[in-house]
Amino acid sequence: MQDYPPFEIIDGDPGLGLVILADHATNLLPERYGRLGLPESAFERHIAYDIGVEGVVRGLNARLNAPVVMSRFSRLLIDPNRGEDDPTLVMRISDGAIIPGNHPITPEEWQYRLEAFHRPYHDAVSRTIGAVAERTGKAPLVISMHSFTPAWKGVPRPWQVTVLWDSDPRAVHPLLDALEAPGDVVVGDNEPYDGALRGDTLFRHCMKPGIAHALIEIRQDEIGDAAGIARWVDRLAPVFARLNADEALHTYEIHPSRTGPY
Question: Which Gene3D superfamilies match (predicted)?
Answer without folding.
Answer: Zn-dependent exopeptidases
